[in-house]
TrEMBL record:
Keywords: Cytoplasm, Lipid biosynthesis, Lipid metabolism, NAD, NADP, Nucleotide-binding, Oxidoreductase, Phospholipid biosynthesis, Phospholipid metabolism. This is Glycerol-3-phosphate dehydrogenase [NAD(P)+]. It comes from Ellagibacter isourolithinifaciens. Residues 2-158 form the Glycerol-3-phosphate dehydrogenase NAD-dependent N-terminal domain. Substrate binds at residues 105, 253-254. It comes from the Bacteria. The lineage of its organism: Bacteria, Bacillati, Actinomycetota, Coriobacteriia, Eggerthellales. Its EC number is 1.1.1.94. The active site is at 189 (proton acceptor). NAD(+) binds at residues 7-12, 138, 253. It catalyses: sn-glycerol 3-phosphate + NAD(+) = dihydroxyacetone phosphate + NADH + H(+); sn-glycerol 3-phosphate + NADP(+) = dihydroxyacetone phosphate + NADPH + H(+). GO terms for cellular component: cytosol. NADPH binds at residues 10-11, 31-32, 48, 105, 138, 253, 277, 279.
C-alpha cells in the first residue's frame, strides 16, 4: 500500500526505509527541493543519514497533495512544533477516517497538548490516530540494527493496523492503549537526557548519570499518572527503554546538547552546528504547564529549564538537585 511520510529529517528518513523495505510505496514529503531531488535521483537524503542508500520505493515530493495521492495512511515525523501545521494541512486533503500516526516527541507550547491531542483538535475522529515511540535512534533503525517500539492508540484496531505496517524482523512493534503515557514518556526522557549530557560534560560519573536516569523515571512516572496515563508504561520501551537509549547513546541529540551546555554553548549553537532538533529544549519548558496544572514536582526538569532558558550555570544543576530536602524514594505516584 502507499504510505505518506511527512517530514524528511533523520527519523522520517529511517521510518520511510522501514516501510519501503516492508513492501510499501512511500511518498516522503520534504521541504527542500535539493533533498527531494537527491532522494529521487541518488536514493540518498543529502542532509540526514546521508551515507545510507534508500530503497527506491521511497519517492520524495515537495507537495502535500502528491504525497497523499492514493495513500492509505500518513506518518507525521516533523519536529513537534510543526505537528499542528502538518495536521491542519492533512485535514484539508484526507477523509475523516484516514489513519494517521505521529512519531514526533514533544508537548505543545502554551496548551500543553500532546501530539495526538493536536491531531484530534485539527482533524477529529480520534480513534484513527496512533503514536509511535521507543528506544529508536534513526542511525540504527535505518540500517536494520534490531530495535523495538510501541504503537499506542485508544483504538486497538488502529494500533494493530500500524503495528502490521511497521513491524519487521529488525523493528519489533508492540501495541498499547496508553497513548497519553507513551507521549509523555517520549517528551520527558529528552529533558533527562539533556541533564545527563550536562552531567557528563561537567565531568561527573556514571553514578551521577544513573541517579539522573532513576530520579528522572520517578519524575516521569509522577507526571504520567497525574495526566491520566498508566504508570506501567514508564517501565516499558517508551519509558525506561527510551530513557536509557537516549541518556546513554552518543547518537542522542539531547544528550549532545546537554554536553554543549556544560561547555558554555547555547541552543542556537546546537541548531547551527547540527541542523537537528533537540526536543528536550522546548519540552523542559512545556512540561511546566502540565506540572503546574496537575501539581507535580519535577525538579530535574526545573533545573534543566533554568539552564536552557534562564541562563543558570550548569553547575547549579548538581547543587539544586542534591540540596533538596530529604524524602522517601517514591512519593506522588
Ligand atoms: N532522530 C531520531 O533518532 C528520532 C527517533 C525517534 C523520534 N524522533 C523524533 O522525530 C521528530 C523529528 O526529528 P528528526 O530526528 O527526524 O529531525 P532532525 O533533527 O533529523 O531534522 C530536523 C527536521 O526538521 C525539519 N525542519 C526544521 N525546520 C523546519 C521548518 N521551519 N519547516 C519544516 N520543517 C522544518 C527539517 O527539514 C528536518 O526534517 C522529533 O520529534 C524527534 O524527537 C527522532
Ligand atoms: O537523538 P535524540 O536525543 O532526539 O533521541 C532520538 C530518539 O528519541 C531516541 O529514541
Amino acid at each position: 500500500m502507499k504510505v505518506s511520510v511527512i517530514g524528511a529529517g533523520s527519523w522520517g528518513t529511517a521510518l520511510s526505509q522501514v516501510l519501503a523495505n516492508n513492501g510499501h510505496n512511500v511518498g516522503l514529503w520534504a521541504r527542500k527541493p535539493e533533498v527531494v531531488k537527491a532522494i529521487n535521483s541518488e536514493h540518498r537524503n543529502p542532509r540526514y543519514l546521508s551515507d545510507v542508500e534508500l530503497n527506491p520505493d521511497v519517492v520524495a515530493t515537495l507537495s502535500y497533495r502528491d504525497t497523499l495521492l492514493r495513500a492509505r495512511a500518513a506518518v507525521i515525523v516533523t519536529p513537534s512544533t510543526l505537528v499542528r501545521g502538518a495536521a491542519r494541512a492533512l485535514a484539508d486533503v484526507v477523509d475523516s477516517d484516514f489513519p494517521v500516526i505521529v512519531c514526533s516527541k514533544g508537548i505543545e507550547e502554551g496548551s500543553g497538548l500532546l501530539p495526538i491531542d493536536i491531531l484530534d483538535a485539527e482533524m477529529g475522529n480520534r480513534s484513527r490516530f496512533a503514536v509511535l515511540s521507543g528506544p529508536n535512534h534513526a542511525e540504527e533503525v535505518v540500517r536494520g540494527v534490531p530495535a523495538a517500539t510501541v504503537i499506542a492508540s485508544e483504538s486497538p484496531d488502529t494500533a494493530a493496523f500500524f503495528q502490521e505496517l511497521f513491524a519487521c524482523e529488525s523493528f519489533r512493534a508492540y501495541t498499547s492503549e496508553d497513548a497519553c503515557g507513551v507521549e509523555l514518556c517520549a517528551a520527558f526522557k529528552n529533558v533527562v537526557a539533556i541533564a545527563v549530557g550536562m552531567s557528563y560534560g561537567l565531568g561527573f560519573g556514571d553514578n551521577t548519570a544513573a541517579l539522573l536516569v532513576s530520579r528522572g523515571l520517578a519524575e516521569m512516572s509522577r507526571l504520567v499518572v497525574a495526566c491520566g496515563g498508566n504508570a506501567i508504561t514508564c517501565m516499558g520501551l517508551a519509558g525506561t527503554g527510551d530513557m536509557v537509549a537516549t541518556c546513554m547513546s552518543h547518537h542522542s541529540r539531547n544528550r549532545t546538547f546537554g554536553e554543549m551546555l556544560a561547555a558554555g554553548k547555547t541552543l542556537d549553537d546546537f541548531t547551527v552546528e547540527t541542523h537537528m532538533v533537540a526536543e528536550g529544549a522546548n519540552a523542559c519548558r512545556n512540561v511546566k504547564v502540565l506540572a503546574d496544572r496537575y501539581g507535580v514536582d519535577l525538579p530535574i526538569a526545573d533545573a534543566v529549564r533554568s539552564v536552557v532558558w534562564e541562563g543558570a550555570d550548569p553547575k547549579s544543576l548538581a547543587r539544586d538537585l542534591t540540596s533538596r530536602s530529604l524524602k522517601p524514594e517514591f512519593y506522588g505516584i
